[in-house]
Specification:
Alpha-Beta Plaits, 6 strands, 33% helix, flat
């Protein structure tokens, strides 16, 4: 698993690295890297590869929201069943069971704030187990997927006026 862990670390930073570059970074040979990637995919450790998109730079960007969801479970229903139903919605980009003041943290994507609001009020809130939702609209993203979004201006010095 050590070789697989090293390969995972490289893929998590940049999934577009080719096998030879990963081999050079990890000290493994290319065949071992390819074998590790195949094993990680077969074991469902790596579920896919995707781009980290700065939606604020796209003309018709997406509205993102973080939604807190509280649930009340009964004897027949557990967190897994509730999570399975929520995860099936295409608007749900990420879903986490969390500790703290609420049970689930959900990242939702929509075309407009109304789309997100409608999705929560019509699809999530009516679920029998859901007792409360709190929606936080994301106003600006500075870092996502471990990648910092920058405006390209590297000069952090303060302006000085005469």
């Amino acid at each position: 698993m050590d070789a697989e862990r090293e390969v995972l670390d490289v893929l998590a930073r940049n999934a577009r690295e080719d096998i030879d570059d990963i081999a050079a970074q990890t000290g493994l040979d290319a065949a071992a890297v390819a074998e590790a990637i195949d094993a990680l995919e077969a074991d469902n450790v790596v579920h896919g590869y995707q781009a980290v998109v700065d939606w604020d730079r796209v003309d018709e960007g997406k509205i993102r929201a973080l939604v807190e969801i509280n649930v009340e479970l009964d004897r027949e229903t557990g967190y897994e069943q509730v999570a399975d139903r929520i995860a099936k919605f295409p608007a749900v980009d990420a879903l986490h069971l969390v500790s703290g003041d609420y049970d689930f943290a959900v990242e939702v994507l929509g075309e407009t704030m109304q789309d997100v609001s409608r999705f929560i009020s019509e699809q999530v809130a009516p679920m029998p187990e859901v007792t409360q939702t709190v929606t936080h609209y994301i106003m600006e993203t500075y870092k996502d997927g471990g990648i910092r979004f920058e405006d390209g201006d590297d000069d952090d010095r303060l302006s000085v006026s005469p």
